[in-house]
Amino acid sequence: MSIVYFLLLVGVLVVIHELGHFIAAKLLDFKVLRFSLGFGRPLLRTRLGETEYQLGIMPLGGYVRILGEDGGDDVPSSDAVRSFRGKPLWQRLIVVFAGPMANLVFPVIIYFTLFAGHSQLPAAVVGDVLADAPAARAGLAPGDRVETINGEPVRYWEELENAVKDSIGQELRLGLRRGDKSFEKYIAPVEQIVRTRDGGATRQGFIGVTHAPFLPLVGVVDPGSPAAQAGLRTGDLLISIDGESVANWTEVKAKLARNTRRTSLVYLRGRAAPGVSSVHLLEAQFADLVPEIRRSVSGRQRVYTGLEPAEMFVAQVDPGSPAAAAGLRPGDLITALDGEPIDHWMVLDQRLQARPEHTWTLTWQRADGDQVVMRSGELRQRWIEERDEYGHTQTRLAFGAHSDFERGRGELVPIKGRVQYAFEKAMGRSAETVGAMVSGFTEILRGQVPGDSVGGPLMMYRVASVSGHKGWDSFLLMLALISVNLGLINLLPVPVLDGGHLVVFAAEAVRKRPLSLAARARVQYVGLAVVGVITVLALRNDVVRYLLQ
Asked: Are residues 538 and 434 in the same domain?
């Protein structure tokens, strides 16, 4: 199927590009001699009216041949006004520009189709609130519904996300509903560092809320605790307490805090399916938890069960990683970073990402026999380069410890005005894609991105194969991305590309006369040389990336 995905990807992109030229030429009454998909000897050929349509043996491209385009055609006097050179300059500009433009418009259609298939979106309802984050300090709680932001109505979670991301340090006025009570809170997002694929940093606002609640997965580090005595262990999923269902850790904490007597728990524990190592079954189990009443130094009573959220328990440590060098092991409970308490893995990750060169002091709890001991170690992350599934090199900060916490499903609401929503999202996503591509091209030209990021047909084959096997949504998204790429490349001011033709036309407009055949030939040779160098570089990168490594 890989070759099918590759041919489909290339074929669709070529058809879209050449159709742009073809339709513009036909609408402006140019005489189109041939419409070809592919180069070389034709596999299929037919003629409809004055135009010959063919399928070439080499699928990596195509062309539309217009009478008089290359200057070497014998143009009958009867067709002179329909020849390429016989048309006004503005019409020639439209025909040349129409190909790249078709590639830039095509993603809008793809994105519209994908977004139009959505009937629901995550609602602007808080699933969980991270401890000590701006939202927690403002008093937000799980279940709060955000109805307005700075007076503007809000329905979807993405609207809240976008407002927060773009408002670092700027106070937001949130209109909230909790049950039948409406109220307002003022929250100023703090800065959050997000790492890009090349290891760079982008900054966005953060208030410490999630849409999907953290599932009530438990962790047990104290082997002598009531939880351990009741048979509970790290990774068990609580589903009810004293007959009342629980959906998140906030509910678990509230129910356990007010119950000082024997508590009946129902939980799910995973086990491997017989004979199928990749499948895990969840079995319902029961436990009676008898909490202990402990007194703090100040004499205040508290209920102790030994149950902790599983989020900060280490499930896996990569061998040779900074986490392993610091002394972390699976089962450890991370409690602090540089002496500051850590309650959420997301917060841990953000702090580590923000200061990549810093040497941290990591603190954790570990079961040692029948006791719990405190451990600490120095942690210094390191940059590593790795290839993703497409063969692209990406740079990331390596910590090396992983957690198995999971999130549930947040509330969904129907989309109002699906057609309008799909169109607005399609236009926005297309603009973002074009912007990202332009930025990427600029970085390559400035030398800020290494030349080995350029890929050729083997990269196209790999990208088509991987995205195709993931499913049609993934394939269509990749098709949109490469279509934008193709459209922008063709607009580069390089002779033999559409952008080069546009530059020549602009020069002719300034000179008020066409270039001579000799001058046009020299320009073409320069263009061929530039394209040849890029092609050699792309092929070299393909060989190194996919055949030698």
From this structure: yes
Q: Kindly report the number of other CB atoms within 10 A of residue 276's CB atom.
A: 9
Closest CA to 122 of 190, 187, 213: 213
Measure CA 232 to chain center.
37
Closest to 210 measured CA to CA, from 146, 118, 115: 146
Q: What is the DSSP string of 396-434?
A: EEE--EE----B----EEEPSSHHHHHHHHHHHHHHHHH
- Could you give the 3-state DSSP secondary structure of residue 262? coil
Q: What type of residue is 540?
A: R
| Residues 381 and 502 grouped into a single domain | no
In the chain, the amino acid numbered 92 is: R
How far apart (Å, rounded) are the C-alpha atoms in residues 45 and 37?
Answer: 11
Cα distance between residue 85 and residue 359, in whole Å = 68
- pLDDT tens digits for range 267-319: 999 875 555 555 567 888 999 999 888 776 666 778 889 999 999 999 999 99
Whole-number pLDDT of residue 35: 93
The one-letter amino acid at 423: F
Give the residue numbers annotated as catalytic, written as ranges.
Answer: 18
Strand partners, 372: 367
Rounded to two decimals, the pTM is: 0.80
**What's the domain range around 236?**
218-311
362 shares a domain with 322? yes
Query: What CA dihedral angle connects 536, 537, 543 and 546, to 10 degrees?
Result: -140
**Residue 326 token pair:** 């610091």
* Residues 28/95, Cβ–Cβ less than 8 Å: yes
Instruction: Indicate whether 371 pLDDT > 60.
Output: yes
- Do 542 and 440 share a structural domain? yes
What is the C-alpha to C-alpha distance for residues 182 and 174, in angstroms, rounded to an integer?
11
